[in-house]
């Protein structure tokens, strides 16, 4: 049947509770709640293939490592595997730390309760957890019980637990806790929930030192999260002896609001939250403990659980549950610390640069466009933050080059390189990974890859008396330099000479004799590395004589001057590669090289201006 034209005939809106003086909207969360991980129970019971004992064991160890102090480990009466696993935890020395309580779940059925209490015998700290549904839907359909019958069963079952645990003469070495869940709390009448919990409380006899846990599950999420917060606040305000009670939350995610529900309900007065890593659990899952914890963290509140190595947590959860963590899961998803789109990348890159320039230490003042959490804090690397595809701009590709090669590309080169990247990304129709981008850059600018033009040998001579080259004005720093050297083009050697104000201009002049006419428009350099490993990188933008086209050259060398010569030859290499035919160059050892193309008159004014400023 298709969707109804009028769904109100079939579905009724959830009636909100009457709480006009609700307090929670004015509250904020200022501390971490008590956490309970129910991965090994609610999470496990919802898997296609439940975990085996070894998987549960590894999972348990990880939960302890993360810092969970209350862990629901099983439904021991459900299967031998669960029973045996619970025994294994208790009987293997050192596995359950003294400050960790293991919790086990049972229905309100005598035989199951007996088996459940047996399963945790000898534990240092154990919590027995019983549930009984309170909503009219469940009471009528599933149990066929009146409210009074339900209270009677809950009380009888609680007394049985009591006799098998804290009142049992042979079981005094265990610190016993008790949790009762009015299942489907979110869909129950609040007055009835209070009545059944009062009766259970009396049967258990809690103290301020050892409070009873009333877990208020949104077994099925049926309303907006503010309604759940109202229900929880109502419960907290109306249950007696509040200081002998720990109010726990157990939100499911049927409407996709479990995180909001857990947060608002904490504002409503709850003390404890039950959930699973990455929101595993029945149907749409339990509330995601990772999200809740890191939401606190990004508000400056330590969650008392540690996700410094989130990748290892993801690996374990995926391995044991056989369910992948969604790539867009908050904090944990592979794509949530990545930006593909140009404007995001640009903003993030500027954000990181601003941090670097301000010298902000890693543990201070995170103010970053698009990234609510420093990926480093959860063991992610910055390299993974910016990824490049056809939606990316210059910022993304240049960020990757900076991370890979330590090169801080000038804006013009960023633009030039991004065109190369865009073309490649469109042609390939997929993401270009960092190593591919690095290779693309190295190929385009002849770094660590063979160049068609190589400098084999050279020297400079200085002539203070001579007049400047035509078109250049003489000035105090316009001392004329002459480049004499040997370059190889496609393996063939050529002796060339040229004069100019500095090394770059004299080499540019010399290249003219090979028909390569470059006019330097922009020049930048910076150091890469530190100490003995320091190198210089030069970036040169050249206009190709007489044409509108510009090319960039990049040179890296220990010696600054040589880096700039390599950069210029890199640009020259690009020029000859872009020509339709190999240039006609004179044979080796020929000092008087004939021009090899019709291209262009030499113009080195721009070169002289840019380079002479740097004394080159
Ligand atoms: C919201 C939750 O996640 S609650 C936890 C749910 N987890 C699980 O159920 C996983 C483990 N469960 C199991 O392995 C089995 O269901 C067992 C061992 C507990 C019980 O198995 P069975 O005896 O075969 O019963 P079955 O699985 O059909 O459960 C339904 C019965 O339990 C009763 N029941 C359900 N919940 C409860 C409860 N909280 N207290 C008492 N009885 C209950 C039902 O009314 C029904 O009884 P009926 O057979 O008289 O009609
Ligand atoms: C047993 C209870 C707490 C439960 O899992 C639920 O209501 O979802």
From TrEMBL:
What EC class does the entry list?
transferase
GO BP annotations listed: L-leucine biosynthetic process
Tell me the superkingdom of the source: Eukaryota
Please give one Gene Ontology molecular function term for this protein. Answer: metal ion binding
**Main subcellular localisation:** mitochondrion
Q: What is its EC number?
A: 2.3.3.13
Domain named Pyruvate carboxyltransferase: which ranges? 33-311
Keyword Ubl conjugation listed = no
Pathway membership: Amino-acid biosynthesis; L-leucine biosynthesis; L-leucine from 3-methyl-2-oxobutanoate: step 1/4
What catalytic activity is recorded?
Answer: 3-methyl-2-oxobutanoate + acetyl-CoA + H2O = (2S)-2-isopropylmalate + CoA + H(+)
Per its UniProt record, the required cofactor names are: a divalent metal cation
Q: Which UniProt keywords apply?
A: Amino-acid biosynthesis, Branched-chain amino acid biosynthesis, Leucine biosynthesis, Metal-binding, Mitochondrion, Pyruvate, Transferase
Where is it localised?
Answer: Mitochondrion
Per the record, the similarity remark reads: Belongs to the alpha-IPM synthase/homocitrate synthase family. LeuA type 2 subfamily.
Subunit organization: Homodimer.
Which named protein is this? 2-isopropylmalate synthase
Name its species: Ascodesmis nigricans
């Amino acid at each position: 049947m298709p969707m109804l034209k009028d769904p109100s005939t079939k579905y009724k809106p959830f009636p909100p509770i009457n709480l006009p003086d609700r307090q929670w909207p004015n509250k904020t969360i200022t501390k971490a709640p008590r956490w309970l991980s129910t991965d090994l129970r609610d999470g496990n019971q919802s898997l296609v293939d439940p975990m085996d004992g070894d998987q549960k064991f590894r999972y348990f160890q990880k939960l302890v490592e993360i810092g969970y102090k209350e862990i629901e480990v099983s439904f021991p009466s459900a299967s031998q595997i669960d029973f045996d696993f619970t025994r294994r935890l208790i009987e293997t020395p050192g596995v359950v730390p003294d400050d960790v309580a293991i919790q086990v779940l049972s229905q309100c059925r005598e035989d199951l309760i007996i088996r459940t209490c047996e399963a945790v015998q000898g534990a240092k700290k154990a919590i027995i957890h019983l549930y009984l549904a309170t909503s009219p839907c469940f009471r009528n359909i599933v149990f066929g019980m009146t409210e009074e019958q339900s209270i009677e069963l809950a009380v009888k079952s609680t007394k049985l637990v009591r006799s098998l645990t804290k009142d049992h003469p042979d079981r005094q070495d265990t610190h016993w806790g008790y949790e009762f869940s009015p299942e489907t709390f979110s869909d129950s009448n609040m007055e009835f929930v209070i009545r059944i919990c009062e009766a259970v409380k009396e049967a258990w006899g809690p103290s301020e030192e050892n409070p009873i846990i009333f877990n208020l599950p949104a077994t099925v999420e049926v309303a907006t999260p503010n309604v759940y917060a109202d229900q929880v606040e109502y419960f907290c305000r109306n249950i007696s002896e509040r200081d002998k009670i720990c109010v726990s939350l157990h939100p499911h995610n049927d409407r996709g609001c479990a995180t909001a529900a857990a947060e608002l309900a904490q504002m409503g007065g709850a003390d404890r939250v039950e959930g699973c890593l990455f929101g595993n659990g029945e149907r749409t899952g339990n509330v995601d403990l990772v999200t809740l914890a890191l939401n606190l963290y990004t508000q400056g509140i330590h969650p008392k659980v540690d996700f410094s190595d989130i990748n290892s947590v993801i690996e374990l959860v995926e391995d044991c549950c056989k369910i992948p963590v969604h790539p867009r899961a908050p904090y944990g998803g592979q794509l949530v610390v990545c930006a593909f789109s140009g404007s995001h990348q640009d903003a993030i890159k500027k954000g990181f640069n601003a941090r670097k320039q301000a010298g902000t230490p890693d543990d201070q003042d995170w103010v970053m466009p698009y990234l609510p959490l420093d990926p480093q804090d959860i063991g992610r690397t910055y390299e993974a933050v910016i990824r490049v595809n056809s939606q990316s701009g210059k910022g993304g590709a240049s960020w990757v080059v900076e991370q890979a090669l330590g090169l801080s590309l000038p804006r013009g080169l960023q633009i030039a390189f991004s065109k190369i990247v865009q073309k490649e990304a469109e042609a390939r129709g997929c993401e270009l990974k960092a190593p591919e981008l690095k290779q693309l850059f190295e190929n385009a600018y002849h770094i660590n890859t063979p160049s068609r033009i190589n400098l084999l040998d050279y020297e400079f001579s200085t002539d203070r008396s001579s007049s400047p080259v035509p078109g250049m004005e003489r000035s105090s720093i316009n001392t004329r330099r002459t480049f004499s050297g040997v370059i190889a083009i496609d393996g063939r050697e050529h002796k060339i000479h040229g004069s100019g104000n500095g090394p770059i201009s004299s080499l540019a002049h010399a290249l003219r004799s090979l028909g390569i006419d470059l006019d330097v428009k922009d020049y930048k350099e910076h150091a890469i590395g530190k100490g003995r490993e320091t190198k210089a990188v030069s970036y040169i933008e050249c206009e190709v004589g007489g044409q509108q086209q510009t090319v960039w050259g990049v040179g890296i060398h220990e010696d600054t001057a040589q880096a700039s010569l390599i950069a210029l030859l890199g640009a020259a290499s690009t020029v000859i590669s872009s020509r339709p035919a190999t240039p006609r160059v004179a044979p080796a050892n020929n000092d008087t090289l004939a021009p090899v193309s019709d291209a262009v008159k030499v113009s080195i004014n721009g070169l002289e201006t840019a380079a002479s400023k740097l004394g080159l």
